[in-house]
Amino acid sequence: MLKFIAKRLAVSVLILFFVTFLIYALEFSLPTSYVEMTARELATKPGAAKSAKEWIAELNVQYGMDKGLVRGYFTWMGNAVRGNFGDSWNWTMSVTETFRRCIWYSFALSSVAFLLEIFLAVPLGVLAARKQYSLTDYSVTVVSLIGISMPTFFVATVLKMIFSVKLGWFELSGMQGRDFPNLSELGQFLDLVAHMVLPAATLVIVNVGGLMRYTRTNMLEVLNSDYIRTARAKGLPESKVIGRHAFRNTLIPLITLLGSSLPGLFAGALITETLFSIRGIGFTSYYSMINGDIPFTMFYLAFSAILTLLGNLAADILYAVVDPRVRVN
Fold it and tell me: What are phi and psi of 88, to 5 degrees?
């Protein structure tokens, strides 16, 4: 297993090298208007000591854009390995500081939604498979198909209309209420939680259907296997047949899906965070991209690539943990 992990990590580093090179090449090929616009904004700020031309030259040197594609990439990579990703043009602070301030909002929101999806989708998927072609099965299927079919912006709009406009239970958007500064620490925490309810519900509704259908399909395949029929023929209780034999083997394909979902806990929910003005990593990266914030965009895309590679590696390792029959050569 250690040999396998070392090999996969080496391959992941190689893949990351090519991915980040492609990202840098795309950013390098953007029109220079982004850099010029940023330079003009910096030059017109109060107390600015440099002209627009001087800012353009400094920004090009800082990010290696004056050295050509290959040399510029290795300049950026050398700084990135040391943890220096430069300053965000849009958020007027270092890239790492911007990331540190927004990542935990995305992690909290995505973690809660992720756990709710598992606790809802897996039991309901197993229940639907156990009672195939029953009213329960049809109900779960209809609910999952509705969730799969509805886009994020539609679900968010409906939830806002019902719970914010009609009922007035939650705020339309944002992360703080009007009286937030006057609240106690507990009150501020509860206010923040209240603002996260609708975004979390949106993520759960959009994503739970696919996981529910996936669980049902794999559970049905396992339940129709010969060893399940043998276990039932021996007189084992249905709870042991489902829990010890069927569900454990259903977990193997589920791990692939769940392992690939883990990067999303840190990558942020771009559409949901933007619709609800939750200042997480998704919201921050969206406005960085549309405002031409090359340093933060480079960091975010490289960060997403690393998360994807780690998620795939975690899924492969968990295979052997869940099923001892799986051995990695």
Answer: -70, 130
133-158 pLDDT, tens digit per residue, is 889 889 988 988 888 888 888 999 99
Phi/psi of residue 87, each to 5°?
-105, 140
Per-residue pLDDT tens over the stretch 193-246: 888 899 999 989 988 888 888 888 888 888 888 888 888 888 888 888 887 778
Give me 167's structure tokens: 């009922």
Long-range CB pairs of 200-204 (<8 Å, 24+ gap) are 200/109, 200/112, 200/113, 200/116, 201/159, 202/152, 202/155, 202/156, 202/159, 202/272, 202/275, 202/276, 203/109, 203/110, 203/113, 203/117, 203/269, 203/272, 204/113, 204/116, 204/117, 204/120
CB 281 within 8 A of CB 266: yes
Phi and psi for 322 in degrees, rounded to 5?
Answer: -75, -40
The H-assigned helical ranges of the chain are 2-28, 33-44, 52-62, 69-81, 95-130, 135-149, 152-159, 185-223, 226-233, 238-240, 247-261, 264-267, 270-276, 281-290, 294-322
In angstroms, the CA 251 to CA 234 distance is 24
Task: Read off φ and ψ for residue 279, nearest 5 degrees.
Answer: -80, 60
Is the CB of residue 278 less than 8 Å from the CB of residue 196?
yes
Q: Which domains does the chain have, with CATH numbers?
A: 103-294 (1.10.3720.10)
